[in-house]
Amino acid sequence: MSCSSxxxxxxxxxxxxxxxxxTNEPCVRQCPDSTVVIQPPASVVTFxxxxxxxxxxxxxxxxxxx
Length: 66
Known about the structure:
By secondary structure, this protein is mainly beta. The chain contains no helices and 6 strands. The protein has strands at 19-23, 27-30, 34-38, 43-47, 51-54, 58-62.
Protein backbone atom coordinates (compact mmCIF):
# COMPACT_ATOMS: atom_id res chain seq x y z
CA MET A 1 0.00 0.00 0.00
CA SER A 2 1.50 3.33 -1.00
CA CYS A 3 1.55 6.27 1.34
CA SER A 4 -0.38 8.37 -1.16
CA SER A 5 -3.41 6.09 -0.78
CA UNK A 6 -3.38 6.84 2.97
CA UNK A 7 -3.62 10.63 2.53
CA UNK A 8 -6.74 12.58 1.75
CA UNK A 9 -6.77 13.34 -1.98
CA UNK A 10 -6.87 16.95 -3.05
CA UNK A 11 -10.08 18.43 -4.42
CA UNK A 12 -10.37 18.59 -8.19
CA UNK A 13 -10.59 22.03 -9.77
CA UNK A 14 -13.30 22.67 -12.37
CA UNK A 15 -12.47 25.71 -14.50
CA UNK A 16 -12.51 26.81 -18.14
CA UNK A 17 -9.44 26.07 -20.28
CA UNK A 18 -6.57 25.96 -19.48
CA UNK A 19 -6.83 23.71 -16.44
CA UNK A 20 -3.98 22.87 -14.06
CA UNK A 21 -4.10 21.03 -10.74
CA UNK A 22 -1.03 20.42 -8.61
CA THR A 23 -0.65 18.85 -5.18
CA ASN A 24 2.42 18.61 -3.00
CA GLU A 25 1.19 17.38 0.37
CA PRO A 26 3.26 15.41 2.88
CA CYS A 27 1.92 12.04 3.99
CA VAL A 28 3.02 10.53 7.31
CA ARG A 29 1.84 7.25 8.79
CA GLN A 30 3.08 5.65 12.00
CA CYS A 31 2.77 1.88 12.34
CA PRO A 32 1.93 0.17 15.65
CA ASP A 33 4.66 -0.60 18.18
CA SER A 34 6.21 -4.08 18.39
CA THR A 35 6.62 -6.01 21.67
CA VAL A 36 9.33 -8.59 22.32
CA VAL A 37 9.63 -10.97 25.31
CA ILE A 38 13.24 -11.88 26.18
CA GLN A 39 13.89 -14.97 28.35
CA PRO A 40 15.59 -15.69 30.79
CA PRO A 41 14.97 -13.68 32.94
CA ALA A 42 11.64 -12.52 31.52
CA SER A 43 11.86 -8.99 30.18
CA VAL A 44 9.53 -7.03 27.96
CA VAL A 45 10.95 -4.54 25.49
CA THR A 46 8.76 -2.27 23.36
CA PHE A 47 10.16 -0.98 20.08
CA UNK A 48 8.41 2.03 18.56
CA UNK A 49 6.74 1.33 15.23
CA UNK A 50 8.30 2.76 12.09
CA UNK A 51 7.18 6.13 10.76
CA UNK A 52 6.61 6.08 7.01
CA UNK A 53 6.60 9.38 5.20
CA UNK A 54 6.71 10.58 1.63
CA UNK A 55 6.17 13.82 -0.21
CA UNK A 56 4.25 12.89 -3.37
CA UNK A 57 4.12 15.44 -6.14
CA UNK A 58 1.21 14.99 -8.54
CA UNK A 59 0.62 17.38 -11.43
CA UNK A 60 -2.15 17.35 -14.01
CA UNK A 61 -2.05 19.85 -16.85
CA UNK A 62 -4.49 19.92 -19.72
CA UNK A 63 -7.22 21.89 -21.39
CA UNK A 64 -10.99 21.74 -21.23
CA UNK A 65 -12.63 21.90 -24.62
CA UNK A 66 -16.22 22.15 -25.75
